[in-house]
Amino acid sequence: MPKIVYDGSMDPRTFKDVIGGTIISLLEGDPDVIYVDADLMSTIGTYKYHQEHPERAINVGVSEANMMGVAGGLAAAGFKPIAHTFGPFASRRSYDQVFLSAGYAHNDITVIGTDPGVCAAFNGGTHMPFEDVALYRAIPTATIFDITDTVMLESVLRQAVNLPGVKYIRVGRKNAAKVYDEGSQFTPGKAIKLREGKDITLVACGIMVHEALQAADTLAREGIEAEVLDMFTIKPLDEAALIASARKTGAVLAAENHNKIGGLYAAVCEALSRELPTPAGFVAVNDEYGEVGPQDYLQERYGLTAANIAAKARELLKKK
Known about the structure:
Largest sheet: 7 strands, mixed
Strand order of the largest sheet: 2-1-3-4-6-5-10
Shape: globular
Radius of gyration: 19 Å
Structural class: alpha/beta
Helix content: 25-40%
Order of helices and strands: HEHEHEHHEHEHEEEHEEHEHEHH
């Protein structure tokens, strides 16, 4: 079980440093691992390794669809490819190649999509995928991770290269709140209970885990006990943990840095509707496109904040 050390402070390490360092460690430790990138090695610290080992770290250029085809071919030849690009190009732009050359063809690849959702910030709406989770959820047997902090990132990435199927790791490049102690290990498909509660369940993933924990503190001062689950694996969803919490609290609120259509909220509602009809709400992006701005502004703009989670929780509690 991961050890929780959350106190609201930011992690001194950035995601991009851990992505680059972990990829290089995997390349050095396993001759079957090969890394392909679409001209973004400098953004995650792997460019020097590419210069020294171009046969293990391949820059395909600005051709993301081709990169996914290359990754699928490498997997068919027995390798364990890791493919990296920005989130929109890892999903929208190369979707057919991931679906066919990897998923349909039963070629095991690991895809890292960086700066998803509002994390894209000044790269703007063209680079701001809110729909990437919905797309990957539609790929049969795909596994989807939305990463909370750097400790989780390293553990998940090291495991992902040896998991079957298409694996999509959704993660920022900057730093985020530190939630887990160094060395913690995570089991794909298993949610982590960060806080016990009896009144409402807050199910969150990625950068919204921090916001959910902050919201739980706010609600606690009002006498509302919120249970908080880190649902870092969106597919397959840990339905057992979700149902157990929903049965105890009687209300579920999903908080995500995705579009509510097809994302975590949709997955939660699908599970609840089959197993336990329960009032459910969301804090997520509505049916909208992205825009340019700093991340804190964008979180306010799309309502991805602790204050909004607390407000939505109060509304939802009235429906119990």
